[in-house]
Amino acid sequence: MKQVIRSNQFKFTINQAFKKVIHSCKNQPREGQLGTWITDEVEAAYTQLHQLGYAHSAECWLNDELVGGLYGIRLGKVFFGESMFSKTSNASKFAFIQYVQQLITEGVQMIDCQVYTSHLESLGAQMIERKEFIRLLSTYEADR
Question: How would you write the pLDDT of the chain (144 residues) with one tens digit per residue?
Fold first, then answer.
């Protein structure tokens, strides 16, 4: 990924295309899955949460086309990742890596990936026990 980042082939933005990101996540084909949990109602609810300042998106662009991204909820020092999509190899990884750097500068201490995958593991995700997650969540929520 260092090579991809240095190549400057992708452009990174935050909160510039939230509706497009969630819609792309909703329509992303996923191996082994027949559908998505992102219904029209969920899409509308998260769009409203974005308008209220709670839901955020990170976008990856190639030649002015949205080719990858992710969205989630930010509360205190925790970012709860909801979904990612990629239309081009490495696009979602690029968006995630760039967004993590931004979240670190903003003081975020934990990112909840929700579903542990080999893709997220390759980006540094670690599985933690529920008890530890709740402890960390209370710690970082108290720091708001």
Answer: 778 777 889 999 999 999 999 999 998 877 776 668 899 999 999 999 999 999 999 999 999 999 999 999 999 899 999 999 999 999 999 999 999 999 999 999 999 988 777 877 877 788 899 999 999 988 887 555
CATH tag, 2-142:
3.40.630.70
Cα dihedral 47→48→51→57 (10° resolution): -30
- What angle, rounded to 10 degrees, do the helices at 18-27 and 40-51 form? 160
Is the pTM of the predicted complex or chain greater than 0.85?
A: yes
